[in-house]
Design a protein that fits this description.
By secondary structure, the protein is an alpha/beta fold. The chain has 23 helices and 18 strands. Strands 12-11-13-14-10-15-18 form a seven-stranded mixed beta sheet, sandwiched between helices. The protein has a six-stranded antiparallel beta sheet with strand order 6-5-4-9-8-7.
Length: about 575
């Protein structure tokens, strides 16, 4: 898409957009175009005298006019393009012609190099001082385009991702450490915010939270240090740096988590919290010795977002209704299964939030405690002092609970205690790592749990995965390719077709075509036939009956339904389907 397609048509007889804008009064422009009345302008001017804010900002804050209408009005008055930055095809080399500090200070973005001039987006095209300063910085003729201010701010956050800042701080740290630094003796106090390693970590965290990353990976390689972030389940390289700064980063992170900085031969786990731009981030840390140094992975969890509700986790309405009925029972075991990073904890916490009331005693046994929930007793497992899942769970049963959440059934002892609790009048919620719902009872049997306990206590299994959601700004219909058509042929009836969408990539989704993730689910409820099959340890009979119960309501079918709705792509649905087939 070129700039002309992104801009509104200019009026007949429009002047060239190159050159210094005229000095105009915004209020007069809006009155002239009948977007506001003279009375509204007068009221705004009086409010301006009291607050000192700009007229345009006051008109937007009081709801008299929208940002889009304001920018469009200025574009028509100045005979310059109005550009929607949500769909504009940014080019990184053009954007970076203008330093981030100047872009944010003057509220401008470099959009397109036209050869004889540079097209620049301005949130306030009437700001002559900003125009003059940008012209001086770029040393080029510039033509301007009007854009909504909020779009420009979001675009700055997406486009200036601190990559240069992080790389620069990494180089500064290399220089600061020198060639003969003993990393084992490197220490830093909590107040040493000026140290290069601290500034580098701060930039890493700020960039990760800015793009909604779930993890930060610091990986020493033979050729250097690789830093990556995981966004919507996919790793993206943030920067490459000298391998020798890896030890300094690992040591500072271990200090923040209160870990043993002298121990580099064994894996360590920890956690800490950081405060960034009025947002608290909980960090779960894992270090592991590798061939070229310590590999560090940090999982990020925002403590300000709160726990999601069952209504908005993406569970199909019919399944959600049955799941809520299961949660209303006074005893039994409900398991949520799936691989690591499939959203199991989110589902369980949403269930806890649904159940939470003053009438119920609720206890959780977790490693670690991910969200703090008011009114619920939460216990952190600590293997260092032999405070294991099984030990805490035994003590929990003496606390007269109504609902128990076990973070994960990791071993036979924990599973047996949880199942006994479910038999003896407690509602138990927990997670297990299995590929689908039907295989879950046999995973418990493989762990050594007696068949009768599984058959009598297990009420239901919810299996889930996460798929990436199509970007709403750039998603468009596209025909399935040969591989997708072959996969669909095994799921659709003859003559049935499906209209699929896929994001083409834009500035909003950082060129990926996706923005966010959503759960896909399947649920298996235990009935008399399934219970008998499980108690007889008859896998073949159980799987036949289980597949009959879930016909048309499996993970693959839910993913395909999201494709029909335009929520996700066929590629994402295929990923879930192939994972289950493999």
């Amino acid at each position: 898409m070129n700039t002309a397609a992104a801009a509104t048509a200019k009026p007949a007889g429009a002047r060239p957009t190159t050159g210094r804008p005229e000095k105009l009064r915004l209020g007069d422009v809006l009155v002239q175009q009948r977007l506001i009345s003279q009375d509204q302008l007068q009221q705004t001017l009086e409010l301006q005298q009291q607050t000192g804010k700009k007229v345009g900002r006051l008109l937007i804050e009081t709801g008299v006019i929208t940002e889009e209408l304001l920018a469009d009005a200025l574009a028509r008055q100045l005979r310059v393009p109005f550009i929607n930055l949500k769909t504009f095809p940014f080019r990184g080399e053009v954007v970076k012609l203008l330093p981030e500090s100047a872009a944010r200070r003057f509220r401008v973005l470099a959009l397109e190099d036209k050869g004889d001039s540079l097209l620049v987006a301005m949130a306030d095209p009437l700001d002559l001082f900003a125009y003059d300063e940008i012209t001086r910085l770029l040393k080029r003729n510039i033509s301007i385009a009007a854009v909504p201010e909020s779009q420009l701010a979001l675009a700055c956050d997406r486009l200036y991702r601190r990559t240069e800042e992080i790389s620069g701080l990494a180089r500064a740290l290399e220089k600061d450490l020198g060639d003969a630094v003993d990393f084992g003796e490197l220490t830093a106090s909590a107040g040493a915010e000026g140290a290069p390693v601290v500034r580098l970590l701060q930039s890493l965290f700020e960039d990760a939270t800015q793009v909604g990353a779930s993890d930060i990976h610091i990986e020493p390689m033979e050729s250097g240090l690789q830093i990556r972030v995981r966004v919507d389940g996919v790793l993206q390289t943030q920067t490459q740096a000298e391998k020798r700064i890896g030890a300094a980063l690992a040591q500072r992170i271990k200090l923040m988590a209160g870990l043993d900085i002298s121990e580099k031969r064994l894996p360590q786990d920890g956690r800490f919290s950081v405060r960034l731009k009025e947002q608290t981030i909980d960090v779960r840390l894992s270090t592991m010795p590798s061939t070229y140094g310590e590999s560090v992975v940090m999982r990020l969890l925002s403590l300000d977002g709160g726990v999601r509700r069952l209504d908005n986790i993406g569970m199909p309405p019919a399944m959600l209704q049955r799941f809520r009925q299961l949660l209303g029972r006074t005893s039994g075991l409900v398991l949520v299964t799936g691989p690591t990073g499939s959203g199991k904890s989110t589902t369980l916490y949403a269930a806890l939030a649904e159940l939470n009331s003053t009438e119920l005693k609720m206890i959780t046994v977790e490693d670690p405690v991910e969200y703090r929930l008011p009114g619920i007793t939460q216990v952190q497992v600590n293997d260092k002092i032999e405070l294991s899942f099984s030990k805490v769970l035994r003590a929990t049963l003496r606390q007269d609970p109504d609902v128990i959440l076990v973070g994960e059934m990791r071993d036979t002892e924990t599973a047996e205690i949880g199942l006994r609790a479910a038999i003896t009048g407690h509602l138990v919620l927990s997670t297990l790592h299995t590929r689908d719902a039907a295989s879950t009872p046999f995973r418990l049997l493989d762990m050594g749990v007696p068949p009768y306990m599984v058959a009598t206590s297990l009420q239901a299994v919810v299996a889930q995965r996460l798929v990436r959601v199509n970007c709403e700004v750039c998603s468009e219909e596209r025909e399935p390719d040969a591989q997708e058509s072959a996969w669909l042929s095994g799921l659709l009836t003859p003559g049935q077709t499906i209209r699929a969408k896929r994001g083409r990539g834009c500035s909003t989704c950082n060129g990926t075509g996706y923005a966010g993730r959503q759960g896909v689910y399947e649920m298996l409820e235990m009935d008399a036939e399934l219970t008998q099959s499980a108690s007889r340890s008859d896998p073949a009979a159980f799987l036949r009956a289980a597949r009959a119960r879930m016909a048309g309501q499996t993970l693959t079918h839910h993913a395909l339904e999201l494709v029909r709705q335009g929520r996700t792509s066929l590629a994402e649905a295929m990923r879930v389907g192939y994972d289950l087939e493999d």
